[in-house]
Design brief:
It is a single chain. The protein is an alpha+beta fold. It has helices spanning 3-24, 27-51, 54-59, 103-106; strands at residues 77-89, 112-127, 130-144, 149-167, 170-200, 203-231, 237-264, 267-271, 274-279, 284-296, 298-306, 311-320.
Length: 321
């Protein structure tokens, strides 16, 4: 076979493959590939925001000043109920560098997500200067179809506190260690209606996207912490502050699913995204507490807590006997 003949044979074999590739590489297919990449960027970003928050979230709800309920001087028991909200920071999704999608059109979240936490506590004295506390966090399944939100979680905790210092004219100094765990899920659905311009190989095309997407977060977090609490009992008013650390472990998983109809360069098609990002909570982080407690026997407290990024505010009503 001559060289010219061989060249013609190879050309006849390769040309269809080359043409097929050119046909497949359309603005619509490029838009689909970029949209799926954008969805992955969205889940990566959102999961990164929640991994910074879920360690603190698991430890909320204690709402106790530094006094210890020992067996020598009462009270010996305390039962409390309370609740609060953790203000989780979620920066504007439009700040993400996306190529095909508009972030807030596909997943709608506020810049600050208020995450509620109802809590119940029990505390009792074990010995002189030492007590134990138990905590339950529970949010039953909530479905709010009007805003596309659903969520639920269950958490438990146990802690020990030991009084280091206390006196008539001295503040109370307590050291405490705790173990908390929290597992749950939340879902947010968004109706998408996006009109934009998509640039492909230097040419701009009109792009429309409509349909629905659903963002879901699932977490299972364990936290071990230790802190120093300092306060002063001024009869019916008890201000206090605390500082410590916590070590977190577990999983935080974000996913986006949906069904989208796209129109790019007059070509109508569908996208069914199914992207997942797996992560872990921040391993080590600080813990800051400040609060004020009112009452004798029956107590009411206001408490603020932070890990340096989130801010949580809570209140509790507690009965001592």
């Amino acid at each position: 076979m001559s060289h010219a003949t061989l060249k013609r044979v190879l050309l006849s074999l390769l040309l269809p493959l080359w043409l097929t590739g050119r046909v497949l590489a359309t603005p619509s297919s490029d838009f689909h590939a970029q949209a799926l990449s954008d969805m992955q960027s969205l889940t990566d970003y959102l999961n990164g925001q929640f991994t910074k928050s879920m360690g603190l979230y698991s430890t909320l709800g204690w709402n106790n000043p530094p006094g210890v309920f020992d067996l020598v001087v009462g009270p010996h028991f305390e039962i409390g109920v309370g609740g609060g909200v953790d203000l989780i920071q979620v920066t504007n999704l439009n700040n993400l560098n996306l190529g095909a999608l508009q972030g807030s059109s596909n997943i709608s979240l506020p810049a600050v997500l208020p995450a509620p936490f109802p809590a119940g506590t029990l505390r009792m004295g074990l010995a002189n200067g030492l007590d134990i506390g138990l905590k339950l966090l529970y949010l039953p399944q909530i479905n709010l179809p009007d805003i596309g939100f659903s969520g639920q979680y269950t958490g438990v905790g146990i802690d020990f506190r030991y009084r280091i210092l206390e006196g008539a004219n001295l503040p109370t100094l307590t050291v405490g260690v705790s173990w908390d765990e929290l597992s749950g899920s939340l879902g947010i659905s968004t109706n998408v209606n996006q009109n934009s311009t998509y640039s492909d190989s230097g040419t701009n095309y009109s792009a429309q996207v409509s349909g629905t997407t659903g963002y879901s977060l699932n977490w299972n977090v364990h936290s071990f912490g230790a802190k120093l609490l300092l306060g002063k009992n001024l009869m019916v008013i008890y201000p206090f502050v605390g500082v410590g650390f916590q070590r977190n472990s577990g999983t935080v998983v974000s996913s986006i699913n949906g069904q989208l109809t796209t129109t790019v360069n007059s070509v109508v098609d569908t996208i069914n995204p199914a992207v997942v990002t797996n992560g872990n909570p921040v391993v080590f982080e600080p813990k800051y507490v400040a609060g004020i407690d009112f009452g004798e026997g029956l107590h009411w407290a206001l408490v603020g807590e932070s890990n340096g990024s989130d801010l949580a505010i809570s209140t509790s009503l507690r009965c001592q006997f």
